[in-house]
Every structure is written in structure tokens, then in C-alpha cells.
Design goal:
Blueprint: E1 4-9, H1 13-23, E2 30-35, H2 44-47, H3 54-57, H4 59-67, E3 72-75, H5 86-92, E4 95-98, E5 104-105, E6 118-120, H6 121-128, E7 145-149, H7 153-163, H8 166-170, H9 176-183, E8 189-193, H10 205-212, E9 217-221, H11 231-237, H12 239-252, E10 262-267, E11 270-276, E12 283-293, E13 299-311, E14 314-317, E15 321-322, E16 340-341, E17 344-345, E18 351-353, H13 356-359, H14 367-389, H15 412-428, H16 439-446
Parallel strand pairs: 1-2, 1-4, 2-3, 4-18, 6-14, 7-8, 7-14, 8-10, 9-10
Antiparallel strand pairs: 5-15, 11-12, 12-13, 16-17
Helix pairs in contact: 1-14, 6-7, 7-10, 10-12, 15-16
This protein binds flavin-adenine dinucleotide.
Length: about 450
């Protein structure tokens, strides 16, 4: 098959796994150009995965290897819809793969949600991870009690980061501004609330066990939430849920020690009804739920009519991420994804989709590998005939973004300069990395060597 050219938009796991699958194809030399709106690659591996999970971030070494491939080019600080258009990409490439993830948060849709002190987990996670969009997110840590809505790993990540000791935080690559704020924060109590019960929670055992390892933190589980769970329930729920319940039972059986001055409480069967306060949130009104089996064999939470009011100065919704529409690309508003069949965009033109913007915001980093392979299989099937019929000149190279037209573009060598700088400053401070967190700082480090003038 003659060589062909693919644009990938987004440099998170889905984008990099797609690039790797394309570059390793045996019968065809695929050229891959990757466009990323930030000056930094890796998507949520850099800006989502918790700072105290360095092993998980090691997947970036795999992405770096892909980026070294001679048929791969990186174009950072280039946003589809702003710096480059869908039309240009379609003109210059044989196929375009959207790997833009899910950038927005889901809202609770209750009164008071707009009060100061009510924020999305996307803001908090972006803030502590140094995502440039969230450097100035209004995270008020002068308060004593935070409430987090959600029962997934993101809720537990946020609870852990808010409760971690300064010594442990300093050993991570947390953003400097977040480190400074968390070192002196007043939070003593974080309550994580789930709509349904422990059997329906989507967090995983390792994250639960980590809560129990935090120094100075007591994990408060109400044994009553666990006592009705039977062996049959656990058999039906599967091995991860079984391990979750074991971890919860272990935590529930521990006594609080005098050194444990902070508390993380996990409470179930509670839904938020209203956030109260004048301008700043002060309390949350909760409904107590009963669980009922619904028609599809799922379990749904039903308001029992009982109410609780909990004081809280910081309320964080960790109830899921959501994709957003892209420069005239077909979009399913209901599901917040790009509609597709086997990765092929429905209503698109040689356009494909992968990762969270294809499947919705679920699945771990590894899930995106199989997802990428599936999409790449579809790309190759679809465009084989096209490139056989009208092969491109072997020397053809797209130039959708050139340094002369977009001098602030961050090419691979510029990203390498940022990366080395962050690692070097980290080394000097005894930390894995010290992140640059604003676009001007990142561009200054990127172009410090004056390399922008040459492509
Ligand atoms: C808080 C959090 C913690 C997580 N922790 C873990 C964990 O510990 N372990 C684990 O295995 N998984 C974890 N995950 C899940 C994992 O991060 C996702 O499975 C994975 O990142 C999804 O990959 P993606 O490439 O689809 O999206 P993303 O990683 O979001 O990448 C999308 C990329 O597209 C870019 N982009 C967006 N719009 C445009 C545009 N218009 N133009 C150009 N570029 C654009 C974005 O800047 C981003 O770099 C976590 C997720 C979250 C939210």
C-alpha cells in the first residue's frame, strides 16, 4: 500500500496509542502528525493522574518512544478550531483522528451550585496538576470541611490530595501553587458522598486502601453501610466489588488514633438537593436514598424523604467528565461524545475518533490501547482503496501548521526542552518534576534555545 498521512488531534493516551498502532503497521508507511492545544503532551497522564501516582505516569515513557519515531511529528500549542481548522486537516491528510478526551465537567443541576466554594473536580484536579487552564481556579482551602459528591476514583484522588501531609505532597510533582496552598490548608474533614451503596461504587480497591495509608488521617466508614451485604451480593457483583467491600470492612474495623487529626468520611445513599450560603457555600442539604432494583437489573437510588444538612465550605462535584463539540465535527449533545461506528465518525469525511471522546469518560489508560487499535483497524480498512487509487507523491508532507505562520508552535524539540527543564528543576529540589504551569512560562522554556526559527 502507498504511504499515507494521518492527523491525530489530542496527545493523551488515546492519541499516542493510535499513533503507535499506525506507525507499526507492516504493509504501509503511515506518517503521523499530532496536534495538541497545550504546549505539553500526554493529556490526563500529565493533568489528571494524581501527583502521588508516579508509577502510572511512567506510561509517558512509552509515548516518548512513539514520539521519537521518524514518521511522527508533534505540534503543541495548536488548538483545533482556533489555530487550525477541520477543513485544513481534511485537505492535507488522508484521515483525521480526534482524540480530544472529555474536557468538561457534569453539573449537579441543583440550587446553589453557582455559589463560591462550589467547584468541579475537573477544576481541582487541573489546579493541583498544573494544567494552565486551572492555575487560578478558586479553590478555597481556608475552610475546615469539604464535601465531595461522587463515588469513583476521581473523588478518592481529590479526597486524598486534600488530606495528604505536606511531607508526602512535597515528594510528588504537584504544581507549586497547589503545594503552597495545601501545605497551609485548614481542611480537617473531607466527606465523600455516593448516591447509591458501596456495592455500586465505581472506585477501585487500590485507591480505597491508599486512603487507609495516609499519615494523620482517620478513614471513617459507617459499619451499618456494610452489614447488609451478603456473599450472594458479592458473587453477583464480581471480584473488584468484592475487594472494595473487603477494603471498606478493613477500614471500618480500625480505631481512630490520637495522631489522626484529619478525617475522610465515606457515606453512601445520599444525594445533594441544595447548596446553601449567602455568596459562599456554607452547607449542603442531602436526601437519604433507598435503593431499588430497576427494570434493567440495575440498582437506582430513590429519595426516601429523609433530609440531612451538612456544613461545608468547599463542595466538589466529581460526578463525571463530558466531551465538548469541536470545530463543526458531528457531536452527540446527549452523550457528550462524537457519534461513531467502530471509530468512524458518523456523518464525517475520512474522520475517526478514539478514547474518551469516542466511548465517553470511562476506562483507565490501558483501556485506550484496545480502543485505539480498533479505530486504527477501521482507518486502514477505509482508506486502503483511496490511497491505492490516488497515491500521494512520496515526498509529500502536510504543512497545516508551520513555524513561520505560527511561531509559538511547540515542536517535539521544544517539548523536550520543557521536559528537561522541569526534570532538572525537580532534581535540584529533590522532587520528581517541578511543573511549569502557565502558557507564557511553558513557551519561554520551550523556545529558550531559539529553536523556533528552524522547523
Ligand atoms: C482525574 C483523573 C485521574 C485519572 N487517574 C487515572 C489513573 O490513575 N490510572 C489510569 O489508568 N487512568 C486514570 N485516569 C483515566 C485516564 O486518564 C483516561 O483513560 C485517559 O486519559 C483518556 O485518554 P484520552 O486520550 O481519551 O483523553 P485525554 O487524556 O484527556 O487527552 C486528550 C488531549 O486532547 C487535547 N485536546 C482537547 N481539545 C483539543 C483541541 N481542540 N485541539 C487540540 N488538542 C485538544 C487535550 O489538551 C488533551 O491533551 C484518570 C482520569 C482522570 C480524569
Amino acid at each position: 500500500m502507498p504511504p499515507f498521512h494521518v492527523a491525530i488531534v489530542g496527545s493523551g493516551p488515546a492519541g499516542f496509542f493510535s499513533a503507535a498502532s499506525l506507525l507499526k503497521l507492516k504493509d504501509v508507511a503511515v506518517h503521523v502528525d499530532m496536534f495538541e492545544r497545550l504546549p505539553t503532551p500526554w493529556g490526563l497522564v500529565r493533568s489528571g493522574v494524581a501527583p502521588d501516582h508516579p508509577k502510572i505516569k511512567m506510561v509517558s515513557a512509552v509515548f516518548a518512544k512513539t514520539a521519537d519515531h521518524e514518521r511522527f511529528r508533534f505540534f503543541g500549542n495548536v488548538e483545533l478550531g482556533k489555530d487550525v481548522t477541520r477543513g485544513t486537516l481534511l485537505d492535507q491528510y488522508d484521515a483525521v483522528i480526534y482524540a480530544v478526551g472529555a474536557q468538561e465537567d457534569r453539573r449537579l443541576g441543583i440550587p446553589g451550585e453557582e455559589l463560591a466554594g462550589s467547584v468541579a473536580a475537573t477544576d481541582v484536579v487541573g489546579w493541583y496538576n498544573g494544567h494552565p487552564d486551572f492555575v487560578s481556579a478558586p479553590i478555597d482551602l481556608s475552610i475546615e470541611r469539604a464535601v465531595i459528591f461522587g463515588n469513583g476514583n476521581v473523588a478518592l484522588d481529590v479526597a486524598r490530595m486534600l488530606s495528604m501531609s505536606p511531607t508526602d505532597l512535597r515528594a510528588t510533582d504537584i504544581a507549586d501553587h497547589a503545594l503552597a496552598a495545601l501545605e497551609s490548608n485548614n481542611i480537617r474533614d473531607v466527606t465523600v458522598l455516593g448516591r447509591r451503596g458501596p456495592l455500586q461504587a465505581t472506585f477501585t480497591p487500590a485507591e480505597l486502601r491508599e486512603l487507609g495509608e495516609l499519615s494523620g488521617v482517620y478513614v471513617d466508614i459507617d459499619p451499618a453501610d456494610l452489614e447488609d451485604i451478603t456473599e450472594d451480593d458479592l458473587d453477583a457483583a464480581g471480584s473488584i466489588v468484592r475487594l472494595n467491600i473487603e477494603a471498606l470492612r478493613d477500614l471500618a474495623g480500625r480505631d481512630r488514633s490520637s495522631e489522626q487529626t484529619k478525617r475522610i468520611a465515606l457515606r453512601f445513599r445520599r444525594s445533594p438537593l441544595e447548596l446553601r450560603g449567602d455568596t459562599h457555600v456554607q452547607s449542603v442539604v442531602l436526601a437519604r436514598n433507598e435503593l431499588r432494583v430497576d427494570g434493567t437489573n440495575g440498582v437506582k437510588a430513590v429519595d426516601s424523604g429523609e433530609r440531612d444538612t451538612v456544613e461545608a465550605g468547599l463542595v466538589i462535584r466529581a460526578i463525571g467528565y463530558r466531551g465538548s463539540p469541536l470545530d463543526n465535527v458531528p457531536f452527540d449533545e446527549q452523550r457528550g461524545v462524537i457519534p461513531n461506528e467502530d471509530g468512524r465518525v458518523i456523518g464525517g469525511d475520512r474522520e475517526y475518533v478514539v478514547g474518551w471522546i469516542k466511548r465517553g469518560p470511562s476506562g483507565i489508560i490501558g483501556t485506550n490501547k484496545k480502543c485505539a487499535q480498533d479505530t486504527v483497524d477501521t482507518v486502514v480498512r477505509d482508506i486502503a482503496d483511496l490511497v491505492e487509487e490516488s497515491p500521494r507523491d512520496p515526498d509529500y508532507r502536510p504543512n497545516a501548521v508551520s513555524v513561520s505562520r505560527h511561531p509559538q508552535v511547540v515542536l517535539a524539540k521544544h517539548w523536550n526542552a520543557i521536559n528537561e527543564y522541569e526534570l532538572e528543576v525537580g532534581k535540584r529540589s529533590g522532587r520528581p518534576r517541578v511543573k511549569l504551569c502557565t502558557i507564557p512560562e511553558l513557551l519561554e522554556a520551550a523556545h529558550a534555545m531559539g529553536v523556533s526559527a528552524q522547523e
